[in-house]
Amino acid sequence: MIKKGRHSEVVIYSDFVIKKFKAYLYSNFLKEKTALNKLKKYNFVPQIIESIEKELIIKMEKVEGIELRIIIKNSNDTKFLLNIFKIIFKICFILDIEGIYKDEWNRPFKHVIINDKTIKIIDFDRCLICSEKKNLPQFLSFVFNFFNLYKDYKQTLIEYIQFLEKQISAYKTFGKP
User: Fold this and answer.
1) CA-to-CA distance for 10 and 19, rounded, in angstroms?
2) Do 66-173 and 2-61 fall under one CATH topology?
């Protein structure tokens, strides 16, 4: 199967994918390769099998699962969604610590893949390497907007805020003496 995006074409095989960037998008190739290499110690990104810089190709682990947008659309279980959001919260925290700004957390629907065992984040070709902590605030904005759209999610939002209160002090003081 072949999927075409704005920056690349992805060929999906049974065990791996090959992402081929458009010839004029060398910087996007480098961003994706750099981010995935920097994050390879975590289990929330696909692992690079091989990269060919001359051809702007990254061969990586195939990520199987369901996109976040489908889960949100089909799930009425607010606790389940809250648990997913808590895991993504931790992923955003790690991205901020590692200095990788994903820049797509206000609409994370297609880049978060969920299966029975893991949550994986894909498509780092637009990311920035920076010291500013932007992933978590952007994702929190998405979560608050999501829960505020639905009146019956108010209690879940309160629970999420309580969870955040326990986590946020570590985030604010990370890296400070």
Assistant:
1) 4
2) no
Residue 172 has pLDDT above 70, yes or no: no
Residue 43 has pLDDT above 90, yes or no: yes
Q: What share of the chain is helix, strand, coil (3-state, %, to 5)?
A: 45, 20, 35
User: Which residue from 85, 68, 74, 62 is spatially nearest to 11, judged by alpha carbons?
Assistant: 62
H/E segment holding residue 42: none
Instruction: Report the pLDDT value the prediction gives residue 171, as an integer from 0 to 100.
Output: 62
Architecture in CATH of 66-173: Orthogonal Bundle (1.10)
**Which residues, other chains included, contact 88 with Cβ-Cβ below 8 Å and sequence gap of 6+?**
108, 112, 119, 139
- Kindly report the CA angle at 142 between 127 and 90, in degrees rounded to 5? 65
Residue 177: predicted pLDDT: 53
**Helix ranges (DSSP H) in 99-153:** 135-149
Distance CA 84, CA 81 (A): 5
**Domain locations in the chain?**
2-61, 66-173
Check whether domain 2-61 has CATH 3.30.200.20, yes or no: yes
Tokens representing 10 are: 């992805």
Q: Which two tokens stand for residue 125?
A: 């070709």
Question: Model's pTM, two decimal places?
Answer: 0.83
